[in-house]
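Report of the visiting student (M.T.), summer placement. My assignment was to run the structure pipeline on a short list of targets and document each run. The first record concerns Nucleoside triphosphate pyrophosphohydrolase.
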Amino acid sequence: MPQTEPEIRDTDHAAAREIARLSAIMRALRNPDHGCPWDIEQDFASIAPYTIEEAYEVADAIAREDWPELRGELGDLLLQSVYHAQMATEAGHFDLAAVARAISDKMIARHPHVFGEESRDRTADEQIRAWEAIKAAERAGKSETGVLDGVALGLPALMRAAKLQKRAARVGFDWPQTAQVLDKLVEEARELVEARDTLGQDEIEAEMGDLLFVMANLARHLDVDPEVALRRSNDKFTRRFSYIESELQKRGKRPVESDLDEMDALWNEIRQAEKQGQKVSK
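After the run finished, the structure tokens were exported:
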């Protein structure tokens, strides 16, 4: 039998008490007479960068599979929601209860196969299409009639590029084959070289942006999350460069006292070791 509301358990009541306690703490911190001067001075714009940073720290803890650390990072991220809700309460916009109610209502509305009469007998692809149809209806209800409406401006640029292209692809604005994206990639690379050789910095930046945008599209065609892929490459670069520093230290050197040939040889050394599945100690 479908359920219209999920069962609330004792652990949920415990969570609600702790969230209420956190909300009370934030209210005290923002109290204009007795609160913390720093917290009182903050506004939505000044706190937003911390919110983004905390989300990335959650992702970092997950990537490292550091579960005790994840607990703390999730708490830091929860604090951000409570912080924004408290400022919204003070401004008369909404309160924390409204935030929780809105997301609860949204989750129930977006899962009619769990909380309604629709069948759960769907493939994963069919469920994704149903989810997107519900989201499209929600956007229409908010007068977001454009295909690209609602893709947040504050997203990291690479992530936003992927989302924009995914939206456009849904209405057929997309290359049907990956080979065509690769051809476009070559074209954009040539235009970047031309801009470097003949144009100014503004044009170079524009062409660099076009090249990155096509790279995000290529990632989508290859079913790769470009943010995840780039994060992996960042981690790989950090790991390999740390090896270079460690090996140079054994030789009594710092990177600034080395040269490209020596550092490149060390880079190739750890690269080869990693390809062979060897563990290289720093």
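The radius of gyration is 25 Å. The chain has three domains: 10-110, 157-224, 227-275. I thank the supervising group for their guidance throughout the placement.
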